[in-house]
Amino acid sequence: KKSKQDLSKSDGGAADRAALAGGFSDARVLVACDLYAATFSDNSISQKTKRMKEQVEIMRNVTSSIRALALAQSSSSSDGGGLFGGGSKKIPKAEAAQKIRALYVQGGNAWNQYVFVANDDLPIFLNRLPYL
Length: 132
Description:
By secondary structure, the protein is mainly α. It is built from 5 helices and no strands. The radius of gyration is 19 Å and the shape is globular.
């Protein structure tokens, strides 16, 4: 719940609440998605489980790509690394932001597809997962 102090901040206190909750963790989020996908299989892996795990793999790739871009942008040296300074150079902030936005959309679409597959053929008495 937002407090009066949160309302006075430009981001509505989202950064503070996120810091209290901890960062995004593959072990907490994506492994849980893998486990949930596996619940739709019995003796053999079902098509539903396979399709859901494909979407989890896309989300995993997106999060690792965003993390790599963020680390590259936050590094203190802008010159190339590696042997004789021939490593990769820091990309401009605008280009990095554009790539992160595209990855964010790709991850959101993967989540929505995961939810669509998960909600498909669910019995009526089970709650459906929400879309983004």
